[in-house]
Amino acid sequence: MPQRTVPYSIVDVFTTRRFAGNPVAVIRDARGLSGTQMQSIAQEFGFSETTFILPPGNGTTSAKLRIFTPFDEIPFAGHPNIGTAFVAATEETVAEVQSDQLVFDELGGPVSVGLQREQGRVIGARITAPQALEVQGECDTAMIAACLGLPEDQVLSTRFQPCVATVGLPFAFAELADERALAAVELNIAAFKTAQARGPLTVDGFAISAFAVTSESGSDFKVRARVFSPLGHPPEDPATGSAAGALTSLLALSGGDDGFCRASIEQGVEMGRPSLIEVEIPASGARAEITGRCVAVSSGVLYL
Which NCBIfam families would you find in this protein's record (predicted)? Predict the structure, then answer.
């Protein structure tokens, strides 16, 4: 009996060069795979997320998409959607791609995707988060500072109190005084466990998106961010689209032009995997639109 093979591609997302940004493994044909097998494959790759493309279940979507961290299945994530759309448009998959507009059916709800092209070539994608911003509770400033190993006065509450918020995947958000504070972070695992016990919970129990605004002009922001998740998948993530969408939505709430807000978010710099995430909130209460470029890294087959 021949051994079954499963095709995959690896893509770096939120970057224009290989070995930067955030890698995602995309299983191009996941038909017949069980959830247990999908989880094992995600563990084998060890990336923050691995995606599994299944044929669409109806005529209104392009594919069903399942997303796994090395530890669990999650309802939504930013860079996996963008990377999967890039692969679906450039490789042979079981997705139905008939135009530059795709819809992925996911646990967190349908995700609309628009392919980005340059001189006719697909270079990335723009996704719309599955839900508008939801703030799920405030966080104690001292607790956030303890998690990050920083003095409490380096955690700001001028724009908004540190809080847990989501546009499809929840994170805790905390503004830091400046980029030096971001660079000085030293994670305290015991404090993260205490924060998880207190709640509100986030993805991976308790994960923090720490950021510093480097410049702003009206409703346009430039931001440096780091996302930490030491209780779950890799302790630091080089690019986190879902967190970037919620962060920009929070910035829009803190004062924008009728809710409009645009942010360019640099992440992964301290990890040596610089990433650039572009986010726009079109109007008050609107869902975040997250844009990123992609670079193909490798492709092959898995043996089952």
Answer: PhzF_family
What is the residue extent of each domain of the chain? 5-128+293-303, 134-286
**Which CATH number is 134-286 given?**
3.10.310.10
Residues above pLDDT 70, as percent of the chain: 99
Active site residue 49: yes
Residues 8, 203, 53: CA angle, nearest 5 degrees: 25
DSSP 160-216: S--EEEESSS-EEEEEESSHHHHHT----HHHHHHHHHHS--BTTBS-EEEEEEEEE
From 49, 106, 280, 289, active-site residue: 49
Q: What's the CATH fold of domain 5-128+293-303?
A: Diaminopimelate Epimerase; Chain A, domain 1 (3.10.310)
d(CA 60, CA 39): 27
**How far is the CA of 23 from the CAs of 17, 49, 78, 104, 272, in angstroms?**
11, 8, 12, 19, 13
Q: Is the predicted pLDDT of residue 256 greater than 60, yes or no?
A: no
The residue length of the chain stands at: 304
Owner of token pair 């809710």:
259
pTM of the model: 0.97
